[in-house]
Each structure stands twice: as structure tokens, then as C-alpha cells.
Amino acid sequence: MSKCLERLYNGIVKENPTFVLMLGMCPTLAVTTSLINGVGMGLSTTAVLVMSNIIISMLRKIIPNGVRVPAFIVIVASLVTILQFMLEAYLPSLNDALGIYISLIVVNCIILGRAESYASKNPVIPSAFDGLGMGLGFTVGLSFLGTFREILGSGAVAGYQLLGKDTVVKGVVGKVFSHYEPITIFVMAPGAFFVLACLVAIQNKIKIESGKKVAECDGNCMACAASCDSKVEAKVEKKETVKAEVKEEVKAETPANADEAKSESDETKKEDK
Predict the structure, then answer these.
(1) According to its UniProt entry, what is the function of this protein (predicted)?
(2) Three-state SS string across the chain, please?
(3) pTM listed for this prediction
């Protein structure tokens, strides 16, 4: 269970696909014009991630190594097709809002990456939690982006007008909010890049100052965005270890080579005599 919770924590916080690994940027920048779109896209991706990880983990010993990637794509495509049919039937408005990006979940690098690096090498339950953690982390990232872009770009969030003349906020705060003029660029592509950059910068600043001091970092998190020296030290130690191993191998081979050379020279002398 501790391993499962670790996978869940890694996906949401430590290896967040949006703010740390920077994966799946196409839907991240395209569909996060509102909170509802972000949550819908995130939960859709989460459902496919969990199911694909479970199926691939169950079939990991059956799928031949040479065709594993095409097999993964077929599995993911089947799940996405089922998901799209369900959205068309039960949530047509969300399906229309997300559009082609539902179909593009098939080639989402988060899903194929987890299938290749984790689900194909681990048991079913940890793989399911790995997919759930990554999916929830992706959903959190899209939700934050959608919320900030919707508030700044239209003054509303989830259908409630918070800023602008039609604000639902009452009192003195409402009067202050009523003077806000929405900045429409935030619901466009340039606004998506700007908001994402700001959120990543804030996350990295908090991470560096509070949670990733050099003395406390173990240097094993390759996805860590903090600028610490432990990774450099780990690489130096690894190089020194490799050099030491090479020297030991050379020393081990040297006596044997010397004996062979000596025996060859003795044979040559005998032949000359």
C-alpha cells in the first residue's frame, strides 16, 4: 500500500505532468479556457490512463516486446473511442467544447509514457495507482490553468461572474470587483503560455525555497525542477565509480596478460634455440 500511495503522491506533486514534467502541452494550452473544460479534459485523460495502465499491466507478459508500442496504441485508442461515445451520449456540451482533443488523447505522451515506463513492467494495482496519480496531477494542472484564464479573461469561473459589472459579489468587495475589465488575451493562446509560465515559476520558487534544500535532497528525482547541487554530485560520483570499476577490470586483466606475454616470449626463445 505504501508503494501505491507513493505512486499517487508522485503523480500529483513530485512528478506533476503539467508543472514539473511539462507533458501533454497540446491539450493543456488549447482547452483550458475555462475551469469546466480543464476538469473535463483532466478527468477524461485520467479515466483512459487508469484503464490503459491496468490492461497493459495485465497483458505485459503476453505482448511481444517487438510490437509493444503498436499494441499500447491500439489499447489506448479503443479506450478513447469508448470514452468519446460516452461523452457524446451523456455530456454532449463538454464533448463539443473539447472537440478533437478528446481523440488526441490516443497520442498523449503522458499515457504512452506511463504505459512504456511503468505499466509494462509492474503489477496491476501499483500501475492503476500510477495512472490515477498522473491523471489527477494532470487534472489539477488543467484546473488551475482554466481557473486563472477564465477569471482573468472573462471575469467568471464555472458560470459565476466574479469580476466585472455583473459580479455576483455583494458589498464593498463587489463594488471593487465591478470595476474590473476582462483581459480577453487570457482566453487566447498567448494568455495560455503566459499563465502557464507564471504558475510554473511560482511552483519552482516555492519548491526551491521550502522543500528542496541541498542538504535534504537525495538527488534521485530526475524530474525535480529545483536547482540543487546534489544532482551534479551524484553524476560526479557515478563517473568516479565507473572509472574505479574500469581500473579494477584493467588490474584484474593485467596479470593474465603478463603471464600470456611471458609464456609467448619463452616459447619464442625456445624456438630460436
Answers:
(1) Part of a membrane-bound complex that couples electron transfer with translocation of ions across the membrane.
(2) CHHHHHHHHHHHHHCCCCCCCCCCHHHHHHCCCCHHHHHHHHHHHHHHHHHHHHHHHHCCCCCCHHHHHHHHHHHHHHHHHHHHHHHHHHCHHHHHHHHHHCHHHHHCHHHHHHHHHCHHHCCHHHHHHHHHHHHHHHHHHHHHHHHHHHHHHHCEECCEECCCCCCCCCHHHHHHHCCCCCCHHHHCHHHHHHHHHHHHHHHHHHHHHHHCCCCCCCCCCCCCCCCCCHHHHHHHHHHHHHHHHHHHHHHHHHHHHHHHHHHHHHHHHHHHC
(3) 0.72
